[in-house]
Design brief:
The structure holds two protein chains of two kinds. Chain A is α/β, with parallel strands linked by helices. Chain A is built from nine helices and twelve strands. In chain A, the strands form three sheets. Chain A has a six-stranded mixed sheet, sandwiched between helices. In chain A, helix 3 packs parallel to helix 5. The chains are: A alpha/beta, B mainly alpha. The complex binds adenosine-5'-diphosphate and magnesium ion. Magnesium ion (MG) binds next to helix 1 of chain A.
């Protein structure tokens, strides 16, 4: 960890000493990460280095083994208290965890749209079930977001009738419909045909420009160079190198970073 | 089937072809001949004619008597009871099966064991024995009461009044069916991609919402066909309710009449006709259920409703549209495109 928290402003994401084991597999070995509000953090690293696991720990899709994850100052997954006079962590109930997750949007490599719902219904569903919006309200918001990602004319299509790029844009609209304060992207363009990557990156670029805080796992170095405020290079469950895009991408200090960048280009 | 498709393909370009076909030299090939189909059709027709002829001319079937009793009051009431037993038992079975399947997936080990033991017991004992047991319940437990376990009791029932013969029959059939359906539901739940649950959780949905809105609707695609099978099987299993004993169902009614008038065979035919008729109706219902839960999974269905402005904006869509027409002719056995699926999906 390096950046001092600037002038008392709480970072949107604050990870301290994060460890994660899957059984005997020690996947994350002490991660520290700060993502200031309104900034974009791009995570790079070879396959299996633990990038997805970091994202999944941020929104509690995985139970963490050690460390603290805070989003907008709120400790994720636990409540700090005392037990028998000693400080202790109390696991939050599923209701509270669901509430914490609802503030964080996530976009998956394989889209994970609901195949039995149209694009519009995909964007409406959680608004109605989680935010308790009315159908009319959710529908209006869905239409607005589908327009924003350029899919107004595909609203009534089922996912199977959409191209990969269109599906991923619907998935982004679905996450944005929850009015998240943070967006997580896990290799959002890796499952796409090359000619469809651009349309998804364009939507993400717009989103970054609008001031959304984003943590993006991607191999798109062009996107990182252009949009990221901070680039983090991970390998074997630790952060090997971090800094500005120019610093990490043009002038990497570590051999592992250099090897990786050479292999991606 | 593919003959139909062939015709559809040959016809569809016609309107454009006459005047300004954008495709030069469109192929109008002579379709492949299928002599084997014609030969098999002739053989089948001859065999069918022989069977029908044999049925009609054999006076042991006694068709006048069949006609006389087909809509006999006792028979029709039997049909009503059989339908009611089937529907009620299946409803109990399905509700309980979903519960059991969800318990099997629970993180709570107590729930998992309870579910396992239930399925083990009800699948492991014969349905006939279970029905006899439910018939005897008022002898085994003459009084039932509602209250605190081992504590005060608030309500008392006489078992014979609460568990009538028809209720015992429905309970017996339903509880047994639940054990089988639970395994079907479990397979259905397992068939849904794990990413669906992840995406739902990431959106902040509760477990119950995820199950009801995301997992179950997709699992239904896998659940409905074998459940249709179970329903049809249940229709005929209802004839076992004699074990309770319950004696108003179709099977008992026709047998009773047949014995009374010393003409068992025509009454057997009456029963068979009714069972066949009900099965046919159930199959139609199953077809529509399968179509409903298949929405969004077969990309050739529906979805044009929102096409509207923009037209063929992308290459993919142009390809999809080009491929759609003949595919529908092949896959849709109702003979028409599944339009409006998008609009009426809710
Ligand atoms: N649910 C899991 N159970 C066991 N091992 C897992 C699980 N998820 C990830 N892993 C392992 O953790 C390591 C890091 O995975 P991941 O975070 O997906 O890497 P990346 O996204 O950087 O490719 C890999 O070795 C992977 O096999
Ligand atoms: Mg990954």
């Amino acid at each position: 960890m390096s950046q001092p928290t600037t002038s008392g402003v709480v970072p949107m994401v604050e990870i301290r000493g994060l460890h994660k084991e899957f059984g005997h597999l020690h996947v994350l070995r002490g991660i520290d990460l700060d993502v200031p509000q309104g900034s974009v953090c791009v995570i790079l690293g070879p396959s299996g280095s633990g990038k997805s696991t970091v994202l999944r720990c941020i929104n509690e899709l995985e139970d963490i083994t050690a460390g603290r994850v805070r989003v907008d100052g709120e400790l994720m997954g636990y409540r700090e208290g005392t037990r028998g006079g000693k400080p202790a962590l109390f696991r939050l109930g599923s209701r509270d965890i669901a509430r914490q997750r609802a503030r964080i949007g996530m976009v998956f490599q394989r889209f994970n749209l609901f195949p039995h719902m149209t694009a519009r219904q995909n964007v409406m569903e959680a608004q109605i079930r989680v935010l308790r919006r009315s159908k009319a309200e959710a529908g209006a918001r869905a239409d607005e977001l589908l327009r924003r990602v350029g899919l107004s004319d595909r609203a009534e299509h089922y996912p199977a009738q959409l191209s990969g790029g269109q599906q991923q844009r619907v998935a982004i609209a679905r996450a944005l419909a929850m009015d998240p304060e943070l967006m997580l992207f896990d290799e959002p363009t890796s499952a796409l045909d090359p000619e469809l990557v651009g349309e998804v990156l364009a939507v993400m670029r717009d989103l970054a420009r609008s001031g959304m805080t984003m943590v993006v796992v991607t191999h798109e170095l062009g996107f990182a160079r252009e949009v990221a405020d901070q680039v983090v290079f991970m390998a074997d469950g630790v952060v090997v190198e971090r800094g500005t895009p120019a610093g990490v991408l043009e002038n990497p200090q570590e051999t592992r970073t250099r090897d990786f960048l050479a292999s991606v280009l | 089937m593919s003959d139909l498709a062939g015709q559809g393909r040959a016809k569809s370009p016609d309107p454009a072809a006459s005047t300004s076909d954008p495709v030069p030299d469109r192929i109008h090939a002579v379709p492949v001949r299928h002599p084997g189909r014609w030969a098999s059709a002739v053989v089948v027709l001859v065999l069918a004619a022989m069977v029908v002829h044999g049925l009609v001319t054999n006076d042991k079937f006694d068709w006048p008597t069949v006609g006389k009793y087909l809509f006999n009051e006792q028979v029709v009431r039997g049909v009503g009871w059989t339908l009611w037993l089937t529907v009620a038992a299946m409803v109990i079975g399905i509700v309980l099966a979903v519960l059991l399947a969800v318990m099997r997936r629970s993180e709570n080990p107590v729930m998992r064991y309870v579910s396992w033991i239930y399925i083990w017991f009800f699948r492991g004992t014969p349905i006939y024995t279970q029905l006899v047991f439910w018939g005897l319940i008022s002898v085994l437990y003459p009084k039932l009461s509602l209250g605190v376990p081992f504590g005060p009791e608030w309500l008392h029932f006489t078992t014979t009044e609460l568990v009538t013969a028809s209720r015992a029959a429905i309970l017996g059939l339903g509880l047994n069916e639940a054990a089988y359906l639970a395994e079907i539901v479990r397979a259905g739940l397992q068939s849904v991609d794990r990413g669906q649950e992840e995406a739902s959780r990431a959106l902040g949905m509760k477990d119950s919402t995820i199950l009801r809105r995301v997992i179950l609707p997709q699992a239904m695609r896998v659940i409905v066909p074998p459940t249709g099978n179970e329903t049809i099987s249940m229709l005929k299993t209802t004839s076992l309710v004699l074990a309770v004993p319950f004696i108003l169902d179709l099977n008992y009614a026709t047998r009773a009449i047949g014995t009374r008038i010393f003409l068992p065979v025509p009454l057997l035919v009456v029963a068979a006709i009714w069972y066949l008729a009900i099965t046919s109706v159930l199959m139609v219902g199953q077809h529509y259920l399968e179509r409903h839960y298949g929405r969004g999974f077969d990309e050739h269905h529906g979805g044009r409703a929102g096409g509207g402005p923009g037209g063929r904006a992308t290459r993919q869509e142009a390809i999809a549209e080009a491929g759609t027409t003949p595919e529908i002719a092949v896959f849709d056995d109702m003979g028409r495109p599944h339009g409006g699926g998008a609009g009426g999906a809710r």
